[in-house]
Amino acid sequence: MELTTNMENVISNDGTSIAFQRTGIGPPLVLIHGGGASNHKRWDIGGVRAALGEHSTVYAVDRRGRGQSGDHSEYDIEREYEDAVAVAESIGEPVTLLGHSLGANISLEASLRTDNIKSLILYEPGYPIGGHKLAPEQMVAHIQDKIDQGETEEALILFMREVASLSEEEIDIFRKDQSWESRLEAAHTLAREERAVTGYQFDADRFANLETPTLLLTGSESPSIFKKSTEAVYNALPNCRIVTLEGQGHIAMNTAPELFLEEVMAFLKE
Fold first, then answer.
1. Which of 123, 157, 202, 218 is deepest in the core (most CB within 10 A)?
2. How confident is the model at residue 5 (pLDDT cuts 50, 70, 90)?
3. End-to-end CA, the chain
4. Whole-angstrom Cα distance, residue 118 to residue 93?
5. Given strand 117-123, what is the order of strands in its sheet?
C-alpha cells in the first residue's frame, strides 16, 4: 500500500529545497543515496525500495543538486548534513536513516545534529583513513575536466571505476537502467563531493557518546578503503554491529538485493 507517490519537499537550513518521495506504510525509513547516484530512484534497481515499503514508510531523498531538489552556488558538505536533519525533523516521529557510501557519511553526521533519529543503517561510509584517500587529487581534477568539457558520461564512468571501484559488470547494471540519463545530469556533483570527502577528518571521539543503534554493512569483496572506513566507524560507535555481505562489493543492493534486504529487514524488526 502506498501513501503517496508525489514528490514532497522541506526547506533546509540555508533555504535550499530538498525533495523526497514518500511510499509504503509503517515506521519511517529515510534513504540517503551516495555519490554518482541520480536521485531517489537509485533505490528502485532490484526492487529494493518497493520491498522496504512493505514494512516501512520510505522517504527516498533527492540529495541537493539532483532530481527535484535545489542547489546552492557554494557547495559545503555541512549543508548536506543539515538537509538530512531537515527531512528527519519534518517527520512526526523518530526515524531510521539508511545511507549508502557518501549517504552513510551524511547520515552519521546528521545523527549528531538531531534527536529525531532512532537508528542508523550505514553501508560502507567512505573516509580518508590513515592518509589513504578515496581518490587522489589528480583523479578528481581529471573528473572535473571531463565535466567542464561536457563529457559527462566519461566523467561518471571514471568516477565509478576509479573512485567507487566498481567492476565493469557493476557499472553495466547502472548503464542498462532507466536512471542512467538522470545520473549524467547529476555528474556536475561528482568532483565537489569527492573533494569534500577528501577534506574530512574522521574523529572517533566525536561519536563516543552516540548511543543510536547502528547496523554497519560491508562487502567481503569491497575495496580496502571502504572496509577500513567501516571498521573505523565500528570501533568508534558504542552501540553498533557490523555485518559482512559475503561475495559482494560496494553495491550489494544491486548485485544481491535479497541478501541486502534480509540484513536490513532483520535490523529494522529489532
1. 123
2. low
3. 22
4. 9
5. 7-11, 17-24, 57-61, 28-32, 95-100, 117-123, 214-219, 240-245
- The predicted pLDDT at position 38 comes to 79
The phi-psi region of residue 245 (left if phi > 0; otherwise alpha if psi is between -120 and 50; otherwise beta) is beta
- Identify the band that residue 111 occupies on the pLDDT scale cut at 50, 70 and 90: very high
Cell 554493512 -> residue: 217
Q: Is 25 helix (H, G, I), strand (E, B) or coil?
A: coil
Domain boundaries, the chain: 7-129+202-269
| Distance of alpha carbon 130 from alpha carbon 82, whole angstroms | 27
pLDDT surpasses 70 at 3: no
- pLDDT confidence of 9, banded at 50, 70, 90? very high
Residue with C-alpha cell 549528531? 112
Q: Which CATH architecture has domain 7-129+202-269?
A: 3-Layer(aba) Sandwich (3.40)
* Type and span of the H or E element at 261: helix 257-269
